[in-house]
Write a structure and sequence with these properties.
Blueprint (H helix, E strand, L loop, with lengths): L1 H30 L7 H28 L1
Helix pairs in contact: 1-2
Length: 67
């Protein structure tokens, strides 16, 4: 059960990070064409944040199914 609680906490942390990355990408899009050169960096960070979140959600789902 402690493992599941730790995974839930990790998912919450990664979800907050992914939401912030999404908002950063959204804010950048509203500023265009200003700061256009930041598109690859901000998009990469958003992609990495959501990739980590999806992986953690998968681990959590597997742990809940197993236990």
């Amino acid at each position: 059960m402690a493992d599941i609680d730790a995974l839930k906490a990790e998912v919450r942390k990664l979800n907050a990070k992914a939401v912030q990355a999404k908002m950063d990408l959204h804010d950048l899009s509203e500023e265009l064409p200003t700061h256009w050169e930041r598109i690859p960096e901000v998009a990469r960070l958003a992609h990495e944040a959501h990739e980590a979140l999806m992986a953690a959600r998968g681990k959590l789902a597997a742990a809940q199914a197993a236990g």
